[in-house]
Specification:
Radius of gyration: 16 Å
Bound molecules: flavin mononucleotide
Order of helices and strands: EEEHHHEEEHHH
Number of helices: 6
CATH architecture of the domain at 4-113: 2-Layer Sandwich
Largest sheet: 6 strands, mixed
CATH topology of the domain at 4-113: Beta-Lactamase
Number of strands: 6
CATH superfamily of the domain at 4-113: PAS domain
Strand content: 25-35%
Shape: globular
Oligomer: single chain
Length: 167
Amino acid sequence: MLEEERKLSSVDIIVSQTDLDGFIIYANPIFYKIAGYSSAKLIGENHNIIRHPDMPKAIFKILWERLKNREDVYCFIKNRATNNRFYWVFAYIRPSFNKDGAARNYVSTRHAISNKARDIIEPLYKEMLTLEKSQGEEASEELFKNFMEQNRYKSQSDNEIMHNIQY
Ligand SMILES: Cc1cc2nc3c(=O)[nH]c(=O)nc-3n(C[C@H](O)[C@H](O)[C@H](O)COP(=O)(O)O)c2cc1C
């Protein structure tokens, strides 16, 4: 069955907060409206409840490595909503810390992906997914890392590259 796209408006901001294992502890009303769940249904679920099968595994591997390394991460995600729908976001995900410096939880804010970014990221993820199926996750991760190097201007950080792609 053909999937239907849900588009975020330019003012929509999706917010979620998870514990250190990625289980949702807070979701704002726009999150549950777009994803098609009630808030009670989302709280306590693993964030992968909205994982879309078109997302390469390597993207989440890199995301979690960076979060565990206490970094904040910008990334593009295609998400699944209820009733065979999907929506794309430009996500900012970061750890928050206790006073003693230990990681407390993770917070994510998400906006609509730009058309410019969509044109670049969608074919890249398709290629990564095909590689994951034929050669495995490492080959797909390698492709993503090469893509980042090709898009790195001088000593830009990964987050700056993502910003350049979005805007
Ligand atoms: C704060 C936070 C927000 C996340 N947001 C998403 C998201 O919007 N979509 C998504 O598929 N995964 C998101 N993830 C990653 C998921 O935890 C998970 O790694 C991913 O869905 C892949 O699931 P899997 O490892 O079970 O395959 C988020 C993780 C954190 C910590």
